[in-house]
Amino acid sequence: MSLDTVIQEGLLEPGRPRRALVLMGGGARSAYQVGVLSAVGTMVRLHRDLPNDFPFQVVVGTSAGALTAAYLASAAARGVAAFDELRAFWAGLHSGAVYRLEAPLWMRFNPILAAARLWHNARTRGAVLDTMPLVDTLHRRISLASIDDALQAGALEAVAVTASSYTSGTHWTFCHTADDPHRVGWSRPGRRAEFQPITIEHLMASSAIPFLFPATPLWVDGRREYFGDGSMRQISPLSPAIHLGARQVLVIGVGQPERAGLAGRVAGAPGLGAIAGHAMASVFHDTLQADVEQTQRLARTLRELPREIAAVLPYRAIDVLALQPSEPLDALARAHVKLLPAGIQRALNGLGGLVEGTDLASYLLFEPAFVNALVALGERDAYAQKDRLLSFFGAGAA
């Protein structure tokens, strides 16, 4: 988070402190966020001092986090019940509802032929899998009209999703509010924002995992550009929430920057699966911790200023609470990797042991057992931080 962002956004008109939810990307791993939010919903609902309204004014999502953000925005008018509905949405997912391998059935039983088909898909359209099932799932399960209704009713002030342009290299944030035509986006080096209604195409662009899912075209600056996963080139994941006026930010990541679960696991030179998993971890996880630490450091500096100086400054400290898994998700994925569709397993192993590496395969594990395990971990981690979460929402411990 740059000081420039904090200063400029501090010039916003005073009002109630906007509370933002920031959801990072991670493919199927993002089910962890569902567990955290399910626990948050229960805490808020049961605490006598907290209302049952939807507790965030701004929701920002990246990659699979964008899907969750859009779903929450569509259910925000129903208050904390939105978190229960989100859990049901994720519980109903499975790999076949997200992607498919375009190959004849007979070809899927041969790892070499299946892998050759993936290479063919990658060369002809830049991705190995077909995501039309996800398009159908999102059209059926996420009501875009309900997002507009929630914004107009004031249940939510803004929802935003991020995506990365393969065409220009720019990282874009697409923001939707009740008064989009009157809002002006921001521009920073390598980062742009535009106010427009969120569509299924925005969600597909944000969640287009590189190499695995195809790029999605969107119109920006009057021209068509092709977009991929918003986690790519995301150098400041908290910035959109701050630009949208947040003074409190709950950010939920899905990775362990140190990746302790890998220690001592691979002897000798890494294989293709290990390299691919490491590269994917870098795409999805490396920027969050640094941005959170910088924002918290700026907040401490502002709070330590003499009161008479702080009173005349045109900006305020940002309160950030960050949650990430307490256990290695790579290890959890290894226990469930055999649940991937058999054809996908054979194809990825034919490409060089990518399933056996499991780290890459974990982003594709939209299977109920893995999703439920991640949700359970998210709930445990949230309850371990119960006092901090309740304080964040403005209440003491129950």
Please give a quick description of this structure.
With 398 residues, this protein is an alpha/beta fold. The chain has 17 helices and ten strands.
Describe what this molecule looks like in 3D.
The protein is globular. The protein has 398 residues and is of the alpha/beta class. Strands 1, 2, 3, 4, 5, 6, 7, 8, 9 and 10 form a 10-stranded mixed β-sheet that branches. The chain has 17 helices and 10 strands.
List low-pLDDT spans: 6-15, 260-264
> Given the helix and strand composition, which structural class is it?
alpha/beta
Describe the sheet with the most strands.
Answer: 10 strands, mixed
Count of helical regions:
17
How would you summarize the topology of this molecule?
Layout: H1 3-9, E1 18-23, H2 31-46, E2 58-62, H3 64-75, H4 81-91, H5 105-108, H6 111-125, H7 132-141, H8 144-153, E3 158-165, E4 171-176, E5 187-188, E6 191-195, H9 200-206, E7 216-220, E8 223-229, H10 239-243, E9 246-252, H11 272-303, H12 307-312, E10 319-323, H13 329-334, H14 342-350, H15 354-357, H16 368-384, H17 386-392
Parallel strand pairs: 1-2, 1-9, 2-3, 4-6, 9-10
Antiparallel strand pairs: 3-4, 3-8, 5-6, 7-8
Q: What tags apply to this protein structure?
A:
single chain; 398 residues; alpha/beta; ten-stranded mixed β-sheet; 17 helices; 10 strands; 45% helix; 14% strand
